[in-house]
Design brief:
Radius of gyration: 22 Å
Helix content: 40-55%
Mean pLDDT: 92
Strand content: under 5%
Largest sheet: 2 strands, antiparallel
Order of helices and strands: HHEHHHEEHHHHHEHEHEEEHHHHHHH
Oligomer: single chain
Distance between the termini: 19 Å
CATH class of the largest domain: Mainly Alpha
Length: about 500
């Protein structure tokens, strides 16, 4: 609920040891109102920034955690996740392209709470310079960089999911400050995202001095990764390549070796914070994620679609031991289509519920390579794009059956190859729907068939024609504004498809 996501944080500023339990600070926001009277010391600013990161792991009361939102928004409308007998009616409606404004999956409250945490730091932290002589301009700039980058990232998820959203850039710290604001169009939101990221980049650190913080907090490279994603969405291909090159040329990241599939899975997903990771949500024993109950065999709400093993990874029937390391035993357990990436402790053994702390990886180095490849292809550099795709494929020991071997001069064929490779590389990482939509809408929806053809594998036969008809309307590609927001904020107008 946008109206009620005002900051209610009076931090118990008992600062624990830095980087305890792989966290920057184990500090959680508590109830109360954070107003100007709170902002007196650098420790309070630090605590407020910690509150932003804490919100990425937790959730407001009665709301889904952020990582679960990102999974649902990024996967349910695509083609790699299927329903089970435990899937909720709301989730089935999303899969079947039957979304109504009463569907709580469209509730953006969790994301706007994080945005308001960011706004609070941006609004109040500068005033602490005059209050605390030990608080430096450099420290302030770093904290503002983190807040602006995270605000930009949150709005980027919102604009891709809803199309038009309220653009709130000032903190709300009390009921008296609640205001009703209309939605801004997508370009306005995206322009603000670019502005936030550009300002954040100028003051971001390259390293915090330890691996956990470098992967769990915003660095210059995190910002470059977000910028690349934004530019790719906006079809600003030269800018995307430039942003990717900033990460690549730093020589700080690389692809985890895939010689041993077990070691690759363990380093990247079980342990987390690998050399390949750029930004990861830092779940641990003190803060577990919600994927265990979502994906475990006994009560799972989702499973991998049959096409994941049949078409995306495939099987070498001549030599069954030869396999793409990202497939069976990594992204999926082929015997029963269990989504394995977040619940496996090895390629064959599941985590216990108390061990459900696999990181949610938002960006990693393979994403940089494939985003650059996608942009280069659109710029006419097909061969350079293919070289990057094959670097990712070769690391994963991808099967020959999935090598489309497109001519470098065939832009459309190379684009399809990259899209398929992204499905293999980022299975169930909350990217598939956004990848499909980005490709479908390119050049004024020249590839709308990507969405229409998908319906044949995702929607029951008796509902397929309805889904196809809906997908022909580009306004249906975005979620509705949740009904409660419309009821409580007269300034909000429902998204066009749902009026």
């Amino acid at each position: 609920m946008l109206r009620k996501t005002f900051i209610t944080l009076s931090f118990g500023l008992v600062i624990v040891s830095l980087f305890s339990c792989k966290k920057w600070l184990d500090l959680q926001p508590q109830d109360g109102i954070t107003g100007a009277e709170f902002w007196k010391t650098k420790e309070q600013v630090q605590g407020a920034v910690v509150g932003i990161y804490a919100s990425l792991l937790g959730s407001p009361t009665n709301s889904r955690p952020l990582a679960e939102h990102l999974f649902l928004w990024g996967e349910l409308r695509a083609d790699m996740v299927s329903a089970t007998t435990s899937t909720t009616n709301e989730e089935i409606d999303v899969i079947n392209v039957n979304i109504l404004p009463t569907n709580s999956i469209a509730n953006w409250r969790t994301i706007y709470q994080t945005i308001n945490y960011c706004n609070t730091v941006i609004d109040f932290a500068p005033g602490v310079l005059a209050q605390d002589a030990t608080f430096t301009q450099a420290a302030l700039n770093q904290y503002l960089s983190e807040a602006k980058a995270l605000r930009g990232l949150m709005y980027f998820y919102l604009v891709r999911t809803f199309g038009e959203v309220p653009l709130k850039l000032q903190a709300t710290s009390s009921d008296q400050q609640l205001i009703q604001i209309p939605k801004s169009n997508a370009d306005t939101v995206l322009n603000q995202i670019e502005k936030d990221l550009n300002e954040a980049e100028a003051n971001a650190v390259f390293t915090f001095g330890n691996q956990a913080s470098d992967k769990g907090r915003i660095t210059r490279y995190t910002i470059n990764a977000i910028q690349a994603d934004v530019y790719l969405w906006r079809e600003k291909y030269n800018e995307c390549v430039t942003a990717c090159n900033k990460v690549i040329n730093a020589n700080k990241f690389g692809l985890i070796d895939g010689t041993s599939s077990g070691a690759w899975f363990n380093i990247l997903y079980v342990n987390g914070n690998s050399n390949e990771g750029i930004f990861e949500l830092q779940f641990d024993r003190q803060k577990i994620n919600s994927f265990y109950t979502m994906l475990t065999t006994s009560r799972r709400r989702f499973q991998a679609s049959p096409i994941v093993m049949d078409e995306i990874y495939t099987v070498d029937f001549i030599d069954p031991d030869k396999k793409d390391i990202r497939g069976d035993g990594a992204s999926v357990r082929a015997t029963d289509n269990t989504i394995w990436k977040y619940i496996g402790i090895t390629s064959t053994t599941s985590r216990a519920q108390e061990e459900s702390y696999a990181h949610w990886i938002i960006y990693r180095y393979a994403d940089i390579l494939l985003m650059k490849a996608e942009a280069l292809n659109q710029l006419g550099s097909g061969q350079e794009a293919l070289d990057l795709v094959y670097a990712v494929r070769n690391r994963a020991r991808a099967l020959d059956a999935t090598d489309l071997n497109p001519p470098a001069s065939d832009k459309s064929a190379v684009a399809d190859f990259i899209l398929q490779e992204r499905a293999r590389e980022f299975a169930f990482e909350g990217k598939r729907w956004f990848d499909l939509l980005r490709n479908a809408r390119r050049n004024d929806y020249q590839q709308l068939d990507l969405l229409l053809s998908m319906v044949a594998t995702t929607v029951p036969p008796d509902r397929q024609q309805s889904a196809i008809t809906k997908f022909r309307d580009k306004n249906s590609h975005y979620l509705p504004v949740y009904f409660y927001e419309i009821q409580t904020d007269p300034a909000l107008v429902q998204n066009p498809f749902y009026r």
